[in-house]
Specification:
The chain has 22 helices and 13 strands. It is α/β, with parallel strands linked by helices. The protein folds into 4 domains: about 1-20 and about 110-220, Rossmann fold (3-Layer(aba) Sandwich), CATH 3.40.50.11060; about 20-80 and about 95-105 and about 225-305, no CATH class; about 310-470, P-loop containing nucleotide triphosphate hydrolases (Rossmann fold, 3-Layer(aba) Sandwich); about 480-530, no CATH class. α12 (about 225-240) packs antiparallel against α14 (about 270-310). It is elongated, with a radius of gyration of 27 Å. The protein binds guanosine-5'-triphosphate and magnesium ion.
Length: about 525
């Protein structure tokens, strides 16, 4: 596989093998894995209870800070590169209780040495697409902290209902896993509980799917209270239908006991316990939903504040790793950023910027999109994504050096359409122009109506992009000429902050302004028209 384009791809970070936190956590879980189904149910039970207790206790351990309304993928405007994030997550003690949800499912999601497996069907994708998807899975797995050792792709009409890969390929995968010494297989799709178990039985190491990896990354990176709550909800939602699978493996263990003469039937304590766990999880989910709704109110308040201020809002959207946060830094860090205390305290992910003509607007970083974003997350992050729809302009960042930028553009647009943000004016910033193939850049600039090639790294194209943003902001529609007396300075200030000043002169009896403003301000200025 060619992973040249992914900074998160394996092989670039020799330190990644060190996982002090993981080592510290090595415990009975490890031993249990291979003994599964051989009467080890007590270890399993205790582990499950511990993990569930941690999940259900989650509320107490959430930080007591004011909700910021946005999750980390936007928060990282402040600014963590992937390398920094990896360093962070390696620090012991930073793992959250949320990770335990997936631990419940996989005994230990900590992925260390992984092999990827993908199914490629000729019906709905080309081999190239499947490879790009597997490459992306590789980057995701690396972001989650693992070493990707190898990968296999199988051409098959549909994934095998019992084992995801077909029998022959699954056996080949088992050999590969043994050969490279992997401890985890990551499948490029969403596996049912029985597929996962079926494949685990063949490859003899734990099997996880793409969704679990993405949820894990979000859990590692969620920082705000709302972000954490949303991720936890998504994880529980993912876990709930899979409890049965877990329970079935418990029953298999019970079966072992039956064989040993303990005589417990298929609807034994395991099944009852699942019901109980399910109820506890549902209760927790209901509580999270209530909390998230409450946080939504705070966000609405912020939003209406912005509307009252009538400062246009630009939302940066784009595929994960496209360089959204870097671009935000570039665009607002160039010295024009006015620190607005109000916005700064309310929401650290929204920054203030100005057009070259001095017209202020806000620039907001957003959650990164990813192909087959787990639907649980689409739901969970809908509220965050809806902020994009509330803006005036979408600044769509795409990684021009990615092997399939068109695919990324399309994936993001389909999610934007989901939250009704597809009708907004859109500027496409084709980022990483320093790395991209000039022919690809040309192709994209020809195809996209409102596109600029930029590099957040070198600064190339940034001025043009800033001008493009200025040109795309909604123009206040009342044009007027006024002479505002000096004792009404606040009106002049409002023309500056909410309108577009075309000309300004200081005369003996006031400030003469030629400007475009919103109707409300125009009405207040009526007395001073000239
Ligand atoms: N060469 C090059 N690298 C860039 C450029 N812009 C961003 N990067 C790198 O791309 C990686 C991702 O950048 P981010 O700004 O974190 O991307 P993002 O879109 O915010 O990513 P998520 O928040 O994870 O969705 C980082 O390693 C950046 O250093 C660029 O113009 N050129
Ligand atoms: Mg980012």
């Amino acid at each position: 596989m060619n992973q040249r384009h992914h900074p998160a791809a394996p092989g670039l970070d020799p330190e990644r093998r060190e996982h002090p936190a993981d080592v510290a956590e090595d415990g009975p879980e490890h031993e249990q894995r291979d003994d599964r189904g051989h009467g080890d149910e007590q270890v399993g039970d205790a582990e499950f209870d511990r993990a569930l207790a941690r999940i259900l206790r989650g509320a107490d351990t959430l930080p007591a800070t004011a909700p910021t309304g946005l999750d980390e993928p936007s928060f990282d405007g402040d600014q963590l590169d992937l390398a920094d994030r990896r360093a962070l997550r390696r620090a012991a003690g930073l793992s959250t209780e949320l990770e335990d949800v997936t631990e419940v499912e996989y005994r230990q999601l900590r992925l260390e040495r992984v092999v990827l497996a993908g199914v490629w069907s000729t019906a709905d994708s080309s081999r190239h697409e499947a490879e790009v998807s597997l490459q992306e899975l590789s980057a995701l797995a690396a972001t989650a902290g693992s070493d990707v050792l190898d990968g296999i792709l199988q051409k098959r009409a549909t994934p095998d209902p019992a084992t995801y890969l077909g029998a022959g390929k699954a056996a080949a995968l088992a050999d590969l896993v043994a050969e490279v010494g992997a401890d985890t297989v990551v499948c490029d799709g969403e596996l049912s509980a029985s597929q996962r178990r079926g494949l685990e039985d063949i490859v003899k190491v734990k099997v996880v799917d793409r969704t679990a990896v993405i949820l894990d990354i979000f859990a590692q990176h969620a920082k705000s209270r709302e972000g954490k709550a949303q991720v936890e909800l998504a994880q529980l939602e993912y876990l709930l239908p899979r409890l049965r699978g877990w329970g079935e493996s418990m029953s298999r263990q019970a079966g072992g006991r039956v064989a040993g003469g303990a005589g417990i039937g298929s609807r034994g304590p395991g099944e009852t316990k699942i019901e109980l766990d399910r109820r506890r999880i549902r209760t927790r989910m209901a509580k999270l939903r209530r909390e998230i709704r409450g946080m939504g109110t705070a966000r609405d308040a912020k939003r209406s504040l912005r509307q009252v201020r009538q400062v246009p809002a630009v939302a940066i959207a784009g595929y994960t790793n496209a360089g959204k946060s870097s671009l935000l830094n570039r665009l607002t860090g160039a010295g024009v950023l006015v620190e607005d205390a109000l916005f700064a305290t309310l929401d650290p992910t929204v920054r203030r910027a100005q057009t070259p003509q001095g017209r202020p607007y806000t620039l907001a970083d957003t959650v990164g999109f990813v192909r087959s974003l787990p639907h649980q997350l689409v739901e969970a992050f809908r509220s965050t994504l809806e902020e994009v729809a509330d803006g005036d302009v979408v600044l769509h960042v795409v990684d021009g050096s990615h092997p399939d930028p068109e695919g990324q553009l399309a994936a993001v647009r389909s999610v934007l359409a989901d939250v009704d943000a597809h009708t907004l004016p859109e500027i496409v910033a084709v980022n990483k122009a320093d790395l991209a193939d000039p022919e690809v850049l040309d192709r994209l600039l020809r195809k996209e109506k409102n596109a600029v090639a930029v590099s957040a790294r070198t600064g190339q194209g940034i001025e043009e992009l800033l001008q493009r943003v200025a040109d795309t902001l909604p123009v206040p529609d009342v044009e007027l000429e006024v002479l505002v007396p000096y004792d009404r300075g606040e009106l002049v200030h409002r023309v500056h902050t909410t309108g577009q000043v075309l000309a300004e002169e200081h005369e003996a009896d006031g400030t003469r302004l030629h400007a475009r403003v919103q109707p409300r301000l125009a009405a207040e200025l009526r007395a001073y028209r000239v």
